[in-house]
Amino acid sequence: MPYPACMEESKRKVEETRPKRLEKGPVDRMPAEERDALVPKFHPDFIKDQFRELRIGLNKGGSAPLEIADLLEGNSRIDPDRIDLDEIDHDVDVLVIGCGGAGGAASLLAEENGASVLISSKLRLGDANTIGAQAGTQACDRPNDSPAIHYLDIMGGGHYVNVPELAEALAKDSPDVIKWLEKLGVNWDKEPDNSYHELSGGGASRRRMHSCRDYTGLEEMRVIRDEIKQRNWHKRNIDWLEFEPAIELLMDDKGQVAGAILMNLETRQMSIVRAKAVVIATGGMGRTHIQGFPTTNHYGATADGLVLAYRVGCPLVHMDTMQYHPTGAAFPPQILGFLVTEKVRTLGAEVVNCDGEQFVHPLEARDTEASAEIRECKERGKGVTTPTGEEGLWLDSPMIDIKRGEGTILRELPAMVRQFSRFNIDIRKEPMLVYPTLHYQNGGIVIKVDASTPVPGLFAAGEVEGGVHGTNRLIGNSTLDLFVFGRRAGRAAAKWAKEVNLGKLTLDHVRKWQREINEAGLEEMPVSPMLLPNYARQERPVPGFQPLGQVSSYTPFGDRAVRWL
Amino acid sequence: MAEVAEKVRMVDIYIMGKRYQVPEGLTIMTALEYCGYNFIRGCGCREGFCGACATIYNFINDPTIRYGLACQTVVEQNMVITQIPFFPAAEALYDVEDLEPEEGENKLAELYPDILTCFGCNNCTKTCPQDLEVMEFVSDAIRGDYEKVYEKSFDCLLCGLCAARCPQGLQPYNIALAARRLRGAHLAPKSQHNLDRIEEIEGGKFNAELDKLKRMAKDELRELYAKREIEPAL
Question: Which pTM value belongs to this model?
């Protein structure tokens, strides 16, 4: 009996209503008008006092979450006057900053297209949000599907503010991405007739989600990482530095991006990379814990790429929209905010309230689904309260085995079964308690279809770029984005590197940035990029001794569970 | 505050032999942070998917070594903990394109000839934080049964603990990685509908329709979206 007594009664109601719900099927999808009214009222993106206007940089006057605004307006970690740019440690064609799916794909394609490639990875090679992506990758390759139908889903999900050409590229490249990954050795789930096993997803009008059990991102990442290593060992022109993130970009005197300054996190030594092209693929921002939300993101998701790009004069788009995944774990406290894959709903589980009633179709787009959950708890008072004070709703997973046959959950969701069984909850027999959790940055660096940014020599791919998904990304389009724009960035960066003539290296953009900070009176802003969160409890620090990361006000220990502070 | 604090039961843990007291219920990872450690290595996705936080532990009065992921394992009284954030394990050199096996050919034994020295001690299986049948898939690899290796090793996080404890110096997780890449690239049946769609896209079949959609006014697009047919989830 893993659920505490105070939750048992509500859990029983879920069991009692289950046969009837199975018989009736899901409630209707939400009409457009209701969705348009619901999201602004309940989605965290619309809580005005959690945002502020940017005071410097190209997006001056634009809005960003408080946590992101502080980083974007942050002070540089370096003093340009004390760095000698004549001492170059690495001289390459393409520097790729970040090595999840997008950075990995960009590196492979840049190398294939004749460039010498160096990867800067903040953690281990491949430690990225990609690896935690569970549900799958969308690709419009079934006969009743098409890039046009996929395009319409992308635009509708994103509230029609997506850049049309980027959404088109995402849909059009998708079947080839699946083929490319398979050629590298990714094992996609298949049907007995050899076609891909494809499931539906929130906001998708066709079944087009390709999966590798519920370890899709892990499978993609371990193959890409291995391919990078194998090419290096074959003496091909690709290399990487682990635990060595970029702390500032370099430019030349012609206004082109020309490399970066890296810092070894363990030894605190710097290295200077001169590169003819730079690809930023640093992923998202979950570890900034916007509005105090827990997150599904990996340890290094601290918005570094946004900061680096913004400082060289690159504009950002849709920075005021974040994605809150509708099903983060709300119990037990040890896994608070962890991802419960949308595939659970795709397979047939419904979200229900404390009385076991359905209140939203399980496959609405994510902003809609999350908003409906928040409404159910905050306005209607139909949430379930845990012993540690969290609120949540039931995700009725046992429905899956009833609908699709015993063994489906174990076969399709081994990671979820394992995750919860570690805390003595059997999701084949019992529902999970869930609540929205900070998941994804919808917006980001402005790019064109070749993943180039408005700043010459700078490219961006993956979660760090914006415009592809408008203000709301759909399931399975993120891992797709990584490979669509990662590959495009790799090709374009290699091409650019062949043609460009670099001038003299300079850090004048950092000097100019610091002047702007001073003129705006922002000297008190933190230093950025953030690099890592600092969750270490500061009980009795040595006065004046600077820790590496910014001390996080968020505690990942379930702070309401363990009130020691 | 003090009143609440009294309700929290504290447990003794030993981080690399040094004693600390932490609240009951924390994972090993959050317990280390509670004690003031700020991770650089040994911490990745924090959700049990990346294998960065492989950890070995036993208890003051129970010397049996146990294995887990720091982000997924809850601390217990008298736990003695050390992390293995990296372990030097060799990997065979190959090009995935060249891995296609001839009938009856065992590519895995060619890449990793040492697997034949496995004497079945089963240490690898005992170490696996994912509870995979590691020794079984090593046996499958010895027999060249790629399909079985793929099935049994699929949930592997490449944390490296199996290699750390193998007395023969084998690298089960790397052997399985090669087997899976080989299978995915060469043995998995091809999906013709995907290849057909790629050809259609390259032939420009959808360009006119996409151009029309791209130029469409928001209201019109919105109407089309609301009316679109939604295939049942299956």
Answer: 0.96
